[in-house]
Structures are given as C-alpha cells and as structure tokens.
Design brief:
Layout lengths: L2 H18 L2 H23 L7 H20 L8 H10 L2 H31 L6 H26 L5 H28 L8 H27 L1
Helix pairs in contact: 1-5, 2-3, 2-5, 3-5, 3-7, 5-6, 5-8, 6-7, 6-8, 7-8
C-alpha cells in the first residue's frame, strides 16, 4: 500500500478505537467542565458579573493546554508490544505519525470547539472577530497536535509517559502558545486580519516546522 492508503486506514482505526474506548475523551470533558464550573463559582462569590478579557484569554488557553496534554499523552502506550511489532513490519513509520497526528488535530479541534461552547455558556462570548479566532484555533490545533504526538512517541519509551509528555512538551509549545494568546487578544479587540497577518504567517511557519520535524524524526524513534 502507498503512504496515503496506509495513513487513511490507520486514521480510520484510530477513530474506531476512540469510539470504542470513550473514557479518555469523557475524562477530558469532565476536567474542562469542572474547571469552568469552579471558576464560575469563584466569580459568583466575588460578585464579578463578567470575566475580564485578559482572564478569559488566559483561562481558556490554560484549560485547553492541559486538556490537550491529557488527550495525547497515551497515544502510543495503549498499544501492546505485539501490536507495535505488527505495525512495525507492515506499515511505513511516516504513515503512523501522520495518522496519529491528524487524529489528534481533529480531536483537539472538536475539544476546543466544545470548550469554547462551554465558555460561552458560563461567561458569555467576548470574541469580536469570530473568523480570526477560529482560524487561530485551527492553526494552533495543528501545531499542538503534531508536537504532542511526536513527544508522546518519545515519552512512550519511558515508564511514566504522561509526566514526560508534559515535561518535554510544555517548553516546545511555548512559541505556539505565545501566538495563540496574542492572536486571541486581537480577536477579542476586533482587530482586522491584516493587523494580525504577520502573526498568522509566523504561526503557519511554526506548523510547517512541527509537521516536517515529526515526519523526519519519527522514523528514527520508531526504529528504536
């Protein structure tokens, strides 16, 4: 099979596994919902009627970041050694990293939309430029999805993969998160796309670097 066919079949396999084992996704949603509920209670106690925009931006990305870490941390550890050996013999390693990364990008996109919907329910919708915000979300999900999938592959060789995914992933994600926060400020203040164009170009370049690094490095990790 060619690379496209292998990636497609592996991607379908990832979706079937997620539909069969929904514990991880439900746990992530409960984490997001409980975090938002606690924040809502704290604001009610302090009699703050509306969440200030800097706090909204900060809390949204903190909630999403830890949800993303939890979502991708065990992407390789749930396979048994026999399954990994079988995949090693029949498919190209690039197909594996592409299928898992694309799956995580789609899952993170769905998760970010649900998180944003819950924020609207609890705190209202302060976003002034919706198109700018959703384009930002789309590009951020691509970068985070590919980075954390590669980091998860590296961390899967250790005994505590979840901890190592967070330790290795957070420093690498800092540049992506900086752009995420800045562009979200632009969306909150109703800036035009032309005013954020340079940031979007930089974010696209970061995504290309993340994708290229995953494709080039994973075969060596997979071989070991």
């Amino acid at each position: 099979m060619n690379l496209y066919t292998e990636t497609k079949h592996l991607l379908i396999k990832e979706f079937k596994r997620e539909m069969r084992e929904q514990n991880a996704f439900i746990g992530i949603m409960l984490f997001s919902l409980s975090s938002l509920f606690i924040i809502h209670i704290c604001l009610s106690v302090r009699q703050i009627g509306k969440l200030p925009l800097p706090f909204w931006n900060c809390i949204f990305w903190i909630t999403f970041l830890f949800s993303a870490l939890h979502c991708t941390a065990k992407s390789f550890t749930h396979h048994g050694k026999s399954t990994l050996l079988y995949l090693y013999t029949i498919v190209h390693p690039v197909s594996i990293i592409l299928s898992k990364s694309i799956f995580h990008c789609i899952l993170l996109s769905f998760l970010s939309l649900l998180t944003f919907g819950m924020y609207i329910v609890f705190f209202g919708n302060p976003i002034q430029n919706t198109a700018l915000f959703f384009l930002n979300l789309f590009l951020i999900n691509i970068g985070i999805g590919f980075v954390l999938t590669l980091i998860s592959a590296i961390a899967s060789t250790t005994e505590n993969s979840t901890v190592f995914t967070a330790l290795l992933g957070l420093p690498i994600l800092i540049p992506i998160l900086i752009f995420a926060v800045k562009i979200t400020y632009y969306a909150l203040d109703n800036f035009d796309f032309s005013q954020a164009q340079d940031m979007f170009l930089s974010l696209c370049l970061l995504d290309v670097i993340c994708i290229t690094a995953s494709i080039l490095l994973f075969p060596y990790i997979w071989r070991d």
